[in-house]
Amino acid sequence: xxxxxxxxxxxxxxxxxxxxxxxxxxxxxxxxxxxxxxxxxxxxxxxxxxxxxxxxxxxxxxxxxxxxxxxxxxxxxxxxx
Length: 81
Fold this sequence. Notes:
Elements: E1 2-4, E2 15-16, E3 34-36
Antiparallel strand pairs: 1-2, 1-3
């Protein structure tokens, strides 16, 4: 799930849900300012490798996290269909 929260972006406010993996490796670049989260639809574990542009600083966190249900619970209801 991704929502574009970038000011002035031509896709500002748009929501995209992508299903990746299912046995194949995928690389996805998420631009700064795009709100995102991930879930696992499968019964087996997945490997998620996350590259960041800056190291996390716990004294001054810059992640700007939102509550998981900020956009409503339905956003996180997942199915394989």
